Amino acid sequence: MAEENKEAVEEQKGGKKKLFILLALLLVLLLAGGGAAYFFIFGKQEEKKEEQKPKLAEQEVGVMYKLDPPFIVNLADPEATVYARISITLELANQQVLQEVQKKEPVIRDAIIEIISSKTSEDLRKPEGREQLKMEILKRINTILTKGGVRNVYFTEFVIQVE
Question: In the chain, where are the structural domains located?
Fold first, then answer.
């Protein structure tokens, strides 16, 4: 009778082991199936979103005009003498705008010098500050011009020096 109890206990232990292994396998299969289902469902939605995005037409590059010589300007730093040397190229809408820019270049250069000299070196060391400077220059030049406008401002040289 003791042997029968041992066998019954061993059968129960063996049955529990088999049940545990079976549950573990079932859990692994569920997780794998769930992951695959997630990938197929949400992966397809991402593809659809990409397809729905409108394709931006590449804009043709405008007329480029380099403002020479480079701008060498004292910055507005109160604690030190700081200079900026900046070369600027303007992207213009068309040839008519180019002619107007050439006529009004002294006015445009004066406006750019005024804008740059109002900045501190701390403002211009950050990418956001340089981007803001570009936008200010673009807006100011476009208020000076009457036949169209500047599409973009490019810095082809940008150096800050502290003395």
Answer: 1-55, 63-162
